[in-house]
């Protein structure tokens, strides 16, 4: 699906039950030629209220992290696995069926931006974007070559806000970005994976991501 079509469709989307808990769809934002693409889990309260990703304390932490490697928020494409806020306070994690329903939008964003580096923030984005089954603690900070880009799994901003030791590790993981952004794209045919419900399970086209 073309990016513009995906954005238009998402803003009125009712493909999963999260349409009932949202106030606004948070599609994502950033330049379509960004080299860096950051994926969180789902919009939270502040994002739902504003319609923009990574707001409030999380947004401030992200901007600080980007600043430590000489990047500004405006240079990066920012989005989440699902575009609507899950219910609950704090919100629950998105369900696999919800991630699957929303993946068409994430795919169209990745295809349009074609970033060199993807940072997956948190357990669920890391698992889904890398297809790895290991715990996040085991794989965090690795630059995993997938479909001609590097995917870096790391902690969520929310976790880093409350656990100082993990905040230090998040800073360390971000410190790898300048080198990776300057390096050549990795050569690999391994393809990023997003799970579907068993009834819909089908391989993604090679190179789709
Ligand atoms: S989370 Fe995604 S699939 Fe579900 S209603 Fe929102 S935009 Fe549609």
From TrEMBL:
CDD domains: UDG-F4_TTUDGA_SPO1dp_like (cd10030)
Record-level Gene Ontology MF annotations: 4 iron, 4 sulfur cluster binding; metal ion binding; uracil DNA N-glycosylase activity
Chain spans, region Disordered: 190-209
Domain of life: Bacteria
Domain Uracil-DNA glycosylase-like: 27-181
Protein known as: Type-4 uracil-DNA glycosylase
GO biological process: DNA repair
Pfam families in the cross-refs: UDG (PF03167)
Signal peptide, first to last residue: none
Family label: Belongs to the uracil-DNA glycosylase (UDG) superfamily. Type 4 (UDGa) family.
InterPro entries: UDG_Type-4/5, Ura-DNA_glyco_family4, Uracil-DNA_glycosylase-like, Uracil-DNA_glycosylase-like_sf
Entry annotated with the keyword Cytoplasm: no
The enzyme's E.C. designation: 3.2.2.27
UniProtKB keywords: 4Fe-4S, DNA damage, DNA repair, Hydrolase, Iron, Iron-sulfur, Metal-binding
Catalytic activity: Hydrolyzes single-stranded DNA or mismatched double-stranded DNA and polynucleotides, releasing free uracil
């Amino acid at each position: 699906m073309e990016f513009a079509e995906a954005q238009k469709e998402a803003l009125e989307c009712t493909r999963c039950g999260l349409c009932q808990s949202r106030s606004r769809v948070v599609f994502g934002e950033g330049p379509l030629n960004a080299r860096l693409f950051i994926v969180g889990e789902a919009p939270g309260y502040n994002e739902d209220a504003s319609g923009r990703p990574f707001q409030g304390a999380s947004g401030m932490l992200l901007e600080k992290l980007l600043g430590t490697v000489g990047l500004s928020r405006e240079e990066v494409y920012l989005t989440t696995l699902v575009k609507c806020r899950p219910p609950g306070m704090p919100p629950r994690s998105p369900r696999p069926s919800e991630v699957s329903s929303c993946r068409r939008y994430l795919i169209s964003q990745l295809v349009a931006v074609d970033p060199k580096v993807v940072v997956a923030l948190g357990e669920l984005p890391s698992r889904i974007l890398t297809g790895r089954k290991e715990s996040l603690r085991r794989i965090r900070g690795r630059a995993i070559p997938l479909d001609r880009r590097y995917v870096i799994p790391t902690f969520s901003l929310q976790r880093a806000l409350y656990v100082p030791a993990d905040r230090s590790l998040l800073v360390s993981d971000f410190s790898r970005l300048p080198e990776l952004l300057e390096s050549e794209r990795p050569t690999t045919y391994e393809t990023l994976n997003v799970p579907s419900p068993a009834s819909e399970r089908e391989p993604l086209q090679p190179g789709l991501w």
